[in-house]
Design a protein that fits this description.
Blueprint (H helix, E strand, L loop, with lengths): L1 H23 L20 H41 L1
Length: 86
Amino acid sequence: MRDIHEIKSLISLILVALFSTHALADEPPKHNCKQPPVPGKFASDAALRAIERKTDIYKDCIINFADAQQEISKKTAEVAKANQAS
C-alpha cells in the first residue's frame, strides 16, 4: 500500500516539475509598434497612401525596437565578459 502512495507522489512531483519549468522561462520582449491594416482590393489611392505612411512608421518602429534589443544584448555580453575576466 505504501508503494502505491509513493508512486502517486512521485508522479505528481514529476508532473509539477514538468509544467512549472515553463513559468521559469523568460518572456521575450514585445514591441509596442502598431501594425497598419491590410488594404482591401478596392482601396482608394488616398487610403493606400495613408497605409503606406503608416507602414513606414511601423517599419521604423520595428527597426528601432530591434536596434534597442541588440544594444541591450551587446551590453549584457560585455558585462558577462567583464565578470568572467575578474
